Amino acid sequence: MAHEDYVMKDLAGYWYNAKYPPNYKVNGSLYHGYKNGVEETLFYDFAVQRYDLYFTYKGKPYHFLSDSKHVAYCDEHYTEEYQAFPDGNTALEQFKIDGKSIIELIDELEDVEPV
After folding, report:
1. Which residues does residue 8 pair with via DSSP β-bridges, in sequence order?
2. For residue 30, what are the contacts with CB-CB under 8 A and spacing of at least 6?
3. Is residue 66's pLDDT more than 70?
4. Considering the entire predicted model, what is its pTM?
């Protein structure tokens, strides 16, 4: 699924992630409909807005570069790419740490920040 396939506009004209949509009824508006800031950063800032991403897992830092053509797991300076993905959702689903995707580890990630 390409970026343009899952990024949609709601009735008020706001962009959202149609594959991992916010749920304002359950989560309220504090994190734009997501249950916490980590979900908001991953599913909206990174996957929809295409911000670069930084997080740590068990003390190890991870850096993702995002642009209009792809997303890449890269070095801390965002200059060397190690693994590429077509879009943010695909990176969240397919990048593996200890055999699990980022989505599977969502509650264990630390220092999750858009860059």
Report:
1. 16
2. none
3. yes
4. 0.93
